[in-house]
Amino acid sequence: MRKYHIYIITNKNNTVLYTGVTSNLTKRIYQHKVKAYKSFSSRYNCNKLVYFEEHSNMRAAIAREKQIKAGSRRKKEQLINSINPEWNDLSDGWLFYFS
């Protein structure tokens, strides 16, 4: 069964929030960390994973991503605080190996 993730990343000072959706969370976070693409997240140094949730189908994941993006910063902060009140990098300790 394929899994899809909605995630929120931030910069080291937690001043910028970026919300995305992916079918490969580990690979996508690695891409953010190494700035694989010139994008919003690379421009604002967003590479710290502070929130994610899993969905079983892409349509539901995209709908949830749009819902989160439409919300205020305060709502995103509440979402992050609900699972990660210290705003730690949830990807710390992940092994990034891709062939």
From TrEMBL:
PROSITE patterns: GIY_YIG. It comes from the Bacteria. Signal peptide: none annotated. SUPFAM superfamilies: GIY-YIG endonuclease (SSF82771). Residues 2-78 form the GIY-YIG domain. Gene3D superfamilies: GIY-YIG endonuclease. It holds the Pfam family GIY-YIG. Belongs to the UPF0213 family. This is GIY-YIG nuclease family protein.
